[in-house]
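Protocol step 4 of 5: obtain the predicted structure for the target chain.
Materials: sequence only (see below). No template structures provided, no constraints applied. The aim of this step is simply to have a reference model before the mutagenesis design in step 5. Sequence pasted as it appears in the construct record:
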Amino acid sequence: MSQHDELRPISDSDIELRKSLNDLPEGSIVYSENTHWGHLWDVPSHIQLTSIPTLGLVELESSIQGEVTNAIKSDDIDSLSQLAVTHAITSPRGVMQFFLAKSQYWNVMENIDSSKLWQFIPSGNQSQSNFIAINNQHCVNSCQQKTDTWISQKFQNPISLTKNRIFVQEGIDSEFVIENEYTDNENNSHTICLVIERVGNTDSVTTTVSSQNIIPQGSGFIEDCFTFENNQLLMQIDYSITWSDSTTSQRWINPTGLSGRGDIIIDQSGLLLHWIELV
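Step 4 output (structure tokens):
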């Protein structure tokens, strides 16, 4: 189980990113989602969090969590300013990163494998992202669908993710064709990042779009990014995954299948493809 980061609500990149909270200015107010991956413990004493886990014995006189969440979703900078929110921290497990990335009022201060620390910029003019949810229609060959075992914990769906994620078994090559609906957008991107989750401790693997990348051996979330020459993003994204001839998948007992949260008990190692961010 120690090699299966996908079973945990908090990723290794989330834990690593939280160290950056120590460097925030005195009095910073940090937004985080009110769910497993947004509940932070041992927070530095010089900052405050909007999301606080309720433990039964804890009684809060007031909370700005709901107000801040609504303000972020509606891009209400006046309310965010009045509530004195200065930063946000998000996990690739959650959903609020999509609202923040689409807004011109939030800047990514640090990004560790799609775990992000954001700064609120009331003056705006920050870069904005678009997203494409990867689904079964994009797969040309050698794909499976697996239930997102965390779907019940997600209260929004701003990029139309389905309950299933596309899975590529370790050791089996696969290809994808993804139509890019944002080529005529004013904020035309020249970099794309596929957010991928390694299931088990997978071998390194070669991926190709405009160039070749190597996803290193390991487990958990990782971003696979490509930059296009002359800022010319393709109308069609052809993405391929190629393993070495010696790579084979490892079988394991998936406890989410036993509990009913997942749909597979005898599982295989491989890659879960979540979405593409057009930066």
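Step 4 remarks: The first strand starts at residue 29 and ends at 31. The chain has two domains: 5-120, 130-278.
Proceed to step 5.
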